Amino acid sequence: MSASQKKLSWLIAIIVIYFALTMMPTPAGLTPVGQKALSLMLCAVLSWIFVPIPVAISSLFFVFALPLVKVEGMGKALQSFADPTVFFMIASFMFATAMGESGISKRISLKIALFADGSPTKSIMYMMCAAALVSTVISDPPVAAAFTPIALELINRSDREKGKSNFAKALLIGVSMAALIGGVGTPAGSSINVLALQQLEKFAEIKISFLQWTMLGIPFVIFATPLTAIALTMTFRPEIKVVPGIEDIKKEYGELGPMKRKETKFLALMLLLVIVWLTGTFHGLPVPLTATVGAVLFFLPGVDLLTWDTAKNRMGWDIIFLTGTACALATSVFKSGAAEWMASISLSGIKGSSELVVLTIITIFTIVVHFLIPVSLSIVAVMVPALAVFATTSNISAALLVVPVGFTASAAYMLPIDPVALITYSHGYYSMGDFFKGGIGASIVWIIFMVLFMYLIGGVAGLV
């Protein structure tokens, strides 16, 4: 069967699934509108997984499908699509582009290699720590895209064979995982975080500040990143003792000279933005607003770090449209009562359990559910409305459940079909089985620290 025939088959299957689900008798406790909303959500997720038509196009279709099948009015559907998270995503891609244009990413890459001094295990550790650090304030996919060429340079200098080199496997898988770990450090690190916070405020009327999230996120990154690096090097023990070519790297770094004006401009503007984000409790300006205004600064005369011709071609428009559609569908699921129905049938088994047990089960489930819903934004869109309802009926703070889901939705460790993992997977140095193998240890680290930090620091940070 050709690729075109497979796509057509999936398109027909998704259409059939929608009509089959909506023509079934409406389950007790679920309204007909809620049945349609859930069916649309499922079909949207399937279309994003199997891509019968481009993601951006299918995303736009599902927004307009809401009024088409009378789940939501046109105005309300478009209002939900234009969620602040969408504008944060646009700004985030601009930050990543500005980082590359300034030259700071190349300087960082060479410095990592010098710190490692030819040690393969140190190269993996430092690469992951650097990627995680940058990812705390810049979205995960651009960070993975920025650090992958650095990793490939070290691999190529070592003349490693695709599919056989443990060093290459650990290094590239490590870049993906570090970007995902670092992305939860602050709300600005990932659109998933911003979406979770927006959904928490919308569905549970709980507002969490940038500083509150960061008080939990940064310690998590500091502990989880090196331990994940150790787990990866234990799983894929590097077969080489020294990464060759260190003298060439020293020469290339020396030729860079002192920091250029573009690099200092970029660092100064990003520092200013971080300060604005951290002081959000005082001025009350939302992260999507300050991020969008901040992105404009890179275009100003005298700054000149970005031009529109450069920025527009680096945008992940498919991810941006997917984000807006996920927001619109999640809103329809909540407003139609489908979220309450989902919570009653899927979470009733843990009702009455201790907070620690509930937190652990929710964290494990969010990692495992990546097998079924590999699109992390969709996990937030599907789970948050149901958890908000469940928390209310169980007398548990919704933040105790939603924040770990916001964090753990980033833990796409099962299969390399998340946009972040695909960036490194596409180069052919590791298989899907390798990624899963490395993800086992990384998942254990994530679960332990997520539960531990949420339980111990969550109260101090004012999250629960």
- Describe the biggest sheet? none
* Arithmetic mean pLDDT: 85
The domain tally reads 2
Global shape:
globular
**Beta strands, count:** 0
Structural class: mainly alpha
Strand residue percentage = under 5%
End-to-end CA span: 53 Å
Low-confidence stretches: none
Rg on CA atoms, Å: 22 Å
Number of helices: 23
Report on this model:
There is one protein chain. The protein has 464 residues and is mostly helical. The chain has 23 helices and no strands. The longest helix is centred in the middle third of the chain and has 26 residues, at 210-235. The model has no long low-confidence stretch (mean pLDDT 85).
In short:
73% of the residues lie in helices and 0% in strands.
What are the salient characteristics of this protein?
464 residues, mainly alpha, 23 helices, 73% helix
Task: Please give the structural blueprint.
Blueprint: H1 3-23, H2 32-50, H3 55-68, H4 74-81, H5 84-102, H6 104-116, H7 120-135, H8 140-157, H9 166-182, H10 191-204, H11 210-235, H12 246-256, H13 261-278, H14 280-283, H15 287-297, H16 308-312, H17 317-335, H18 338-346, H19 355-368, H20 376-394, H21 398-408, H22 419-425, H23 432-457
Helix pairs in contact: 1-2, 2-3, 2-17, 3-4, 3-17, 4-17, 5-10, 5-13, 5-15, 5-17, 6-7, 6-8, 6-12, 7-8, 7-9, 7-11, 8-9, 8-22, 9-11, 9-22, 9-23, 10-20, 10-21, 11-23, 13-15, 17-20, 18-20, 19-21, 19-23, 20-21, 21-23
